[in-house]
Each structure stands twice: as C-alpha cells, then as structure tokens.
C-alpha cells in the first residue's frame, strides 16, 4: 500500500506542476473539438522506427538526453547530466521540460514517426544548444491553425485511432478543410496515471 500511495503522490505532484506550452489563441469551439491558432515555436525532434507503442520510448530516450545536458555550448565540450545541476563550465546546459511531446508520421517508412519535444520560448534557433546526437534536429514550426480533440487515458494505438477517426469525422461534418496530417500530443510523464493523462490529436486546417 505504501508503494501505491507513493506513486500516486509523485504522479499528482507532476500533474500539478506548471509546464510551459506553446502559445495559441482559441478561435472556435465545437462539441467534439476546438480550433487553435498557434504562434511559431521551436522543437527538438528525432525520427524513430517501430510499433506505435515502441516509438515514444525510443525517441524519449534520445531527446531526454539532449534536454538533460548532452548538448554542446560555445566550448564544444561533451557534457553529462548530473541528477543535481551544479554551476560548472563543463556541465551541459539543461533545458526545462515543456509540453507537449508531439508524434507525427515519419518520412522514412510506414513504421517510423517523428517525435518532437517543444523547446522553451526563451530560446531561439541561434541560442538553442547544438545536439551531440546527429539523430536530433532543431527546427522552427511556423504559425498554423489546427483542430484539436482532447482525451484522457492510455497511449495505445487503438485509442489514438478511435479518437483520430472521431476528429476527422467531426471536421468533415463541420465542412472544415483538412490540410495536414494528424499529430499525437502527449502532455504528461510516462509515469502519470492513465486517467490523469491529457492527450490531444491535432490536425492542421484551413480557416
């Protein structure tokens, strides 16, 4: 029982923490979804292959190292990420965790996906630390208008596909033109309890 209470406490603590998100303006609200206009934002992203359930874990391990200190500054020194951050010229620059983690269709094959970590607004492409891992790309996502359907629960492919179909059908019924591929946005830690997770499906639309 102690272990269960401890896990719930840690999860609740993580849920209650304020995490920076990309800025957007709410344009319209429908019964099943809403339309948002996002300002440009920066991402660190990587492309991975595997099943739907495997991709997130593979990419997370790559990207978490980057934001935890495995990046290079002007000194161009390979750095480590201590559990406790110390002031040191040789220490990697730590980047605050933001939300969401975004998953998109990959370019290499049908089993690949591009996973992105949204970077804090305080950075520009010029000031973001350069990755040491050549699997990581830094880029700016331009301003865009997206339809968003939010749901809670697990990150399984089945649940994703069910809600993706709901969003596409709702957009068609509302005569809203789809101009982009669906993306899967996850706002919580993998350790968050399933019923506390905030998940979103995003599709770029024309308005």
UniProtKB/TrEMBL annotation:
Coiled coil region boundaries = none
Top-level taxonomic group: Bacteria
Q: Which Gene3D superfamilies match?
A: Regulatory factor, effector binding domain
SUPFAM superfamilies, A to Z: Probable bacterial effector-binding domain (SSF55136)
Looking up InterPro entries in the UniProt record yields: Reg_factor_effector_dom_sf (IPR011256), SOUL_heme-bd (IPR006917)
One Pfam family, short name: SOUL
Q: What is this protein called?
A: Heme-binding protein, SOUL family
